[in-house]
Amino acid sequence: MRLTRALKTVAIGFALTASGLAYAQGGGGGNAEDLKKSEAAARAQENAKSLGSDPTVKLPPATVPADPQNIWDLDLSSGGRVRIQLRPDIAPGHVDRIKELTRQGFYNGLKFHRVIPGFMAQGGDPKGDGTGGSQLPDLKAEFNPMPHLRGTVSMARAQSEDSANSQFFIVLLPRMQLDKKYTVFGRVIEGMQYVDAIAQGEPPANPTLILQASIESDGKPPVTALPAPPPSSAPSIIDTPAAPAPKRK
After folding, report:
1. Please, which residues bridge with residue 209 across strands?
2. Residue-level pLDDT, tens digit, the chain, 249 residues
3. Residue 114 β-bridge partners
4. Which is it for the CA torsion 145, 148, 153, 155, positive or negative?
5. Predicted model pTM
6. Cα 130 to chain center, whole Å?
7. What is the b/e burial string over 155-175, where b = at least 16 CB atoms within 10 angstroms of the residue's CB?
């Protein structure tokens, strides 16, 4: 019986050592608790030092102050303006591309061509079938630690990591499996209800359009409808005056 108890004591001692815990010998339970606290404090201090010395583990802030120069406004045919906080601190190249194309008027009139319920709404393709892009070169990937949460705006791409160009998608429900595989460059801060109202389908039967994309600091007012197309040129119906009759001599 004593041998069995001794073996159990040895086994417990090995288990505690393996788990990194050490208890004080003797009957004082308070000493063991104090030792555990001091060891936890020491480990926390070591972790804090390692976080401060290793730049790779520093995460960008979850949110940044709203700056009109970095707010992307999308006026949608689904009802209103969507305000997106751009994040040049985590994806400077992608934000520059969005601003450049926006100021060119590239996104105006484009449709959301792929909208999957509970997943995402994708747009930014001038061809409208997912195969198009701008005339600018593809972008180098800027994968970052920001998660794909509801309202996250990320860049679409082809098989190559460095193939993003103009297409983007807005996440409808969290999809963490996309993290660090697609470049997050912003997040919706207002108007998510208009994103939820984007017509669904691959492609949708009656797709939602981007009526106007703008950078908020440019001060463009919201657009609620596409401009009317210019009138088609019709043949002239103005009477041609008859030639004067020849005079008699």
Report:
1. 111
2. 444 444 443 333 333 333 333 333 334 445 666 666 666 666 666 655 544 545 555 788 988 888 999 999 999 999 999 999 999 999 999 999 999 999 999 999 999 999 999 999 999 999 999 999 999 999 999 999 999 999 999 999 999 999 999 999 999 999 999 999 999 999 999 999 999 999 999 999 999 999 999 999 999 999 988 766 666 655 444 444 444 544 544
3. 122
4. positive
5. 0.70
6. 18
7. bbbeeeeeebbbbbbbbbeeb
